[in-house]
């Protein structure tokens, strides 16, 4: 129950003396003292006032709604539904990249020439520590030296040219530094001036350090060669593939490049990504028993015009096919990425004093992979959510509301106990991006604030915990275009929307008035772009300016709601002795109450008064010496289909008073409490629609007949 103070009811004054009788209290007292005439009729007003409903409110904060209700605005709120801030590319992957180091199991072509002067049978060869003159050494195409190897495949080509005048039988041997035969050739009869070419398969042979060639030529029959004539033997080791090899002076570089994001269709659909924050984490694996240095440059990824690049070293692997790895992180904050141009240029170098290489380590010897997460600062291109799923984002925002954001004045108790049936919200929605957006499943709802975070409470999944209705469904109102299921926002556009937020407002107001921190929350999904050229940046959003007015369309509880008006006013200001004398001469006295009810409520009016000033905060109904009048009940007026009053109702009640009760009105001041209880009307289940013009008129006055006597 609320108490009102100082509202100027103009209580308790001696209004008049009946016609042809004394004009003043003094004259009445003198005339009564003389005993002439026999009696005097006095009328003393207790209260005469008109109470407009908005009088119970702070009228500076009220308004009239579009449908004519008395409205209480809730302070304007802003809900900024961030869209651009939700644009994130998570789990981007580079296309797989591997480099096979087969080059380390290959040899360059190498050759030597032996000149044999006949007769010269082949001299026996023995193992040597150092290669003799004309010995063949081997190296990889990159220049690493072969110390020993098992030949996987390869051919040795022999060319014999007989420059003598005699036919000759030519023998050729090829042995390594350990005198092991690397390849075997049959002896050949070579005619005068003839040249013969043949080859031998070296597959499966082993060799150590070098290969020395031995050759001999024996003339046939009794032919004697001309002095100084010779047989030439050319030996060519074609490029060979090695089954295994031990290398020394290892220095094996490689260069390769590939379109790293070629398979990432979600970023390939846009032209440019400006990165707010994020990174690419490159992981490189090495199978070689040689440490690997990698230099990686990302073409199409640059900051201030400079391409992103970095280096990493991967330790040597055991050589059994297992790998070691290293990582390189590219900080992309502030970078620009042109997805169609992203090429990873990889330069590698394996350097060691020696290493043993087998096929198990050269297959996919180097493997590079990368993942990345990007927080977008700006996207430019054909923004198509079907091609780039990241343009479909879940959005949310909130604004906290407290009881300081609205003022129901002395109607606060009524609002606490009643149900708000009308709350109209005007939403001004603005799309700040220059691409279209569509909001789907977008709702204005209610959530309680978590005091620890200052944000709406969340469940285990991280979603807002929304207030629910009686059916257990989230309490909310969809925000859509009229007649549609979505809200379409063209590029850089503004829309004005009207929503009925009665249920939402009712819950917000009730929680706030109970000192529970509460928020108006906006949740839903946003679809950015339609495939046309455009851009969106991190700061882009759909901003809602919310003006909410609670209309006094209320459903009251059956017990009603009560207001109390307290006032201290001047009394008749008669000296105490004279007042006592007048009170003692009262023949008859009573109070007449007339109440005209222009509100949609039923009324119960109660009045109590006492002589004197009761102080700053009082309740006369609590005083034992009070004069309490019989309550006046006034029926609710009839209302139209909108719940508005069509014609006021009234009630008249008269009750008798004693002289002692009238005496309370004759002193210097009177303290009066008037209690008004609003009760549900007969129609609409107690639902009532209040207009600013709805009012209650009160006229309560005391009447007394005072008899004369001798002074």
Notes on the protein architecture:
- Strands 6, 7, 9, 15, 18, 19, 20, 21, 22, 23, 24, 25 and 34 form a 13-stranded antiparallel beta sheet that branches. Strands 1, 36, 38, 39, 40 and 44 form a six-stranded mixed beta sheet that branches.
- The protein is mainly beta and 711 residues long.
- The N terminus is likely disordered.
- It contains seven helices and 46 strands.
- The protein has three domains: 167 residues, no CATH class; 337 residues, no CATH class; 133 residues, Jelly Rolls (Sandwich).
- It is 7% helix and 52% strand.
- A hairpin with a 4-residue loop joins strand 28 and strand 29.
Strand tally, please?
A: 46
Low-confidence stretches: 1-20
Structural classification: mainly beta
Spatial separation of the terminal alpha carbons:
49 Å
Q: What Rg is obtained from the alpha carbons, in whole angstroms?
A: 54 Å
- The overall number of domains is 3
Our count of helices gives 7
Shape: rod-shaped
Largest sheet: 13 strands, antiparallel
* Fraction of residues in β-strands: over 45%
Q: Please bin the fraction of helical residues.
A: under 10%
Mean pLDDT: 87
């Amino acid at each position: 129950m609320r108490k009102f103070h100082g509202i100027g009811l103009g209580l308790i004054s001696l209004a008049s003396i009946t016609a042809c009788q004394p004009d003043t209290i003094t004259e009445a007292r003198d005339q009564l003292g003389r005993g002439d005439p026999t009696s005097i009729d006095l009328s003393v007003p207790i209260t005469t006032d008109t109470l407009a409903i908005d009088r119970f409110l702070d009228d500076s904060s009220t308004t009239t709604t579009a449908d004519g209700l008395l409205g209480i605005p809730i302070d304007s709120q802003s809900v900024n539904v961030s869209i651009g801030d939700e644009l994130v590319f998570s789990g981007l992957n580079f296309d797989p990249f591997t480099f096979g180091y087969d080059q380390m199991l290959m040899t360059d072509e190498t050759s030597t020439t032996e000149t044999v002067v006949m007769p010269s049978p082949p001299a026996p060869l023995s193992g040597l520590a150092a290669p003799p003159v004309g010995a063949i050494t081997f190296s990889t195409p990159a220049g690493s030296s072969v110390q020993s190897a098992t030949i996987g495949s390869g051919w040795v080509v022999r060319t014999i040219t007989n420059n003598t005048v005699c036919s000759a039988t030519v023998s050729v041997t090829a042995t390594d530094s350990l005198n092991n035969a690397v390849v075997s050739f049959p002896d050949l009869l070579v005619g005068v001036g003839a040249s013969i070419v043949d080859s031998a398969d070296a597959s499966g042979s082993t060799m150590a350090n070098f290969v020395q060639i031995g050759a001999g030529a024996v003339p046939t029959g009794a032919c004697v060669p001309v002095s100084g004539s010779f047989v030439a033997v050319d030996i060519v080791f074609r490029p060979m593939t090695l089954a295994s090899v031990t290398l020394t002076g290892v220095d094996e570089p490689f260069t390769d490049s590939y379109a790293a994001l070629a398979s990432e269709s979600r970023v390939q659909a846009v032209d440019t990504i400006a990165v707010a924050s994020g990174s690419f984490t490159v992981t490189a694996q090495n199978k070689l028993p040689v440490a690997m240095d990698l230099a990686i440059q990302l073409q199409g990824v640059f900051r201030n015009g400079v391409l992103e690049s970095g280096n990493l070293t991967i330790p040597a692997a055991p050589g059994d096919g297992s790998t070691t790895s290293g990582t390189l992180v590219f900080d992309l904050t502030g970078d620009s990425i042109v997805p169609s141009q992203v090429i990873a240029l990889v330069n590698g170098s394996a350097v060691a004093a020696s290493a043993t290489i087998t096929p198990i380590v050269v297959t996919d010897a180097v493997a590079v992979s990368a993942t990345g997460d990007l927080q977008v600062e700006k996207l430019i291109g054909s923004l198509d959510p079907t091609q780039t799923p990241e343009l479909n984002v879940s959005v949310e925002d909130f604004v906290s509301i407290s009881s300081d954001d609205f003022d129901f004045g002395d109607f606060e108790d009524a609002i606490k106990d009643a149900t708000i049936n009308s709350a109209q919200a005007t939403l001004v929605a603005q799309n700040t991006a220059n691409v279209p957006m569509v909001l789907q499943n977008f709702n204005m709802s209610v959530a309680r604030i978590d005091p620890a975070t200052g944000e709406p409470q969340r469940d285990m999944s991280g979603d807002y915990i929304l207030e629910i209705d009686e059916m257990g469904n989230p309490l909310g109102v969809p925000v859509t275009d009229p007649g549609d299921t979505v809200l379409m926002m063209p590029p850089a556009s503004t829309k004005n929307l009207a929503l009925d937020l009665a249920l939402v407002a009712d819950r917000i107001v009730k929680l706030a008035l109970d000192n529970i921190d509460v928020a108006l929350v906006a949740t839903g999904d946003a679809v950015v772009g339609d495939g046309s050229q455009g851009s969106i940046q991190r700061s882009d959003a759909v901003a809602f300016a919310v003006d909410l007015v609670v209309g006094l369309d209320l459903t009251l509880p059956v017990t009603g709601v009560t207001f109390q008006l307290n006032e201290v006013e001047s009394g008749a200001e008669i000296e105490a002795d004279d007042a006592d004398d007048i009170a003692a001469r009262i023949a008859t006295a009573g109070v007449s109450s007339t109440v005209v009810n222009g509100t949609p409520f039923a009324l119960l009016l109660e009045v109590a008064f006492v002589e004197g000033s009761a102080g700053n905060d009082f309740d006369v109904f609590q005083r034992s010496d009070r004069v309490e009048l019989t309550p006046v009940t006034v029926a609710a007026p009839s209302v139209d289909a909108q719940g508005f009053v069509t014609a006021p109702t009234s009630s008249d009640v008269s009750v008798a008073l004693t002289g002692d009760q009238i005496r309370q009105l004759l002193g210097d001041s009177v303290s009066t409490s008037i209690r008004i209880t609003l009760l549900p009307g007969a129609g609409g289940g107690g639902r009532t629609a209040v207009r600013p013009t709805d009012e209650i008129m009160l006229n309560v006055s005391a009447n007394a007949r005072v008899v004369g006597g001798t002074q």
